[in-house]
Amino acid sequence: MWAFRKGNTFAATAFGSFGGVNVAYTVFILLHQAGLVTGPSADMGVIGAFLASFALIAAFLTVGALWKNWGLVGMLFFLTLTFALLGTGNIAGSPNLLHYGGWAGIISSLCAFYRGGAMAANSASQRQLLPLGKPLDSAPTPAALPASVPSDGHRGEALG
Predict the structure, then answer these.
(1) Which of 62, 84, 110, 125 is the most exposed place for a label (fewest CB within 10 A)?
(2) Do 70 and 109 meet the contact criterion of CB atoms below 8 Å apart?
(3) What are 116-154's pLDDT values in tens digits?
(4) Boundaries of every domain in the chain
(5) What would the 3-class secondary structure string for the chain be?
(6) pLDDT digits (tens, 9 = 90+) for 29-73
(7) What angle is formed at CA 50 by the lines to CA 45 and CA 51, rounded to 5 degrees?
(8) How far is CA 73 from each of CA 13, 15, 141, rounded to the nearest angstrom?
(9) C-alpha span between 13 and 20 (Å, rounded)
(10) How far apart are the first and last CA of the chain?
(11) What does the alpha-carbon distance between residue 102 and residue 86 come to, in Å, rounded to a whole number?
């Protein structure tokens, strides 16, 4: 939870949400293997529901990532697709959806590897070696500017 301490709400939400669902899923699997959770509801429907909850979290994070960079958006988009296909495949009992979900997961992993490599290379070189894509323009609207800044967004500097 160091991300909260550093003021990175996006990362804290992502790690906290996925971490919480991972812990709950692990507890379910351990209880299921111990025979403490039984019956027809303890099979693929529950696993599908866990995967569907992952898909919802990833979808919300994908929208939030639009203001971070496109490398993150691509990774989270394919992660959303992965969890949606795997969740639906588990609930519906469709091997084809599980297969497609696996491929979407591979694409998501490749996006994550590229993003991680680009972040490491860009940080080590102190310049952009590998592009991640620019985020959506997050320039403040005139209503959001402080009173000391004119509505045209300039602080009195020359425009030329």
Answers:
(1) 125
(2) no
(3) 999 899 999 999 899 988 888 765 555 555 555 444 444
(4) 2-144
(5) CHHHHCCCHHHHHHHHHHHHHHHHHHHHHHHHHCCCCCCHHHCHHHHHHHHHHHHHHHHHHHHHHCCCCHHHHHHHHHHHHHHHHHHHHHHHCCHHHHHHHHHHHHHHHHHHHHHHHHHHHHHHHCCCCCCCCCCCCCCCCHHHCCCCCCCCCCCCCCCC
(6) 898 888 887 766 666 788 888 899 899 999 999 999 999 889 999
(7) 95
(8) 15, 16, 24
(9) 10
(10) 45
(11) 8
CA gap 55, 135 in Å, rounded:
22
Cβ 86 vs Cβ 49: under 8 Å: no
Q: Tokens for 154?
A: 């300039």
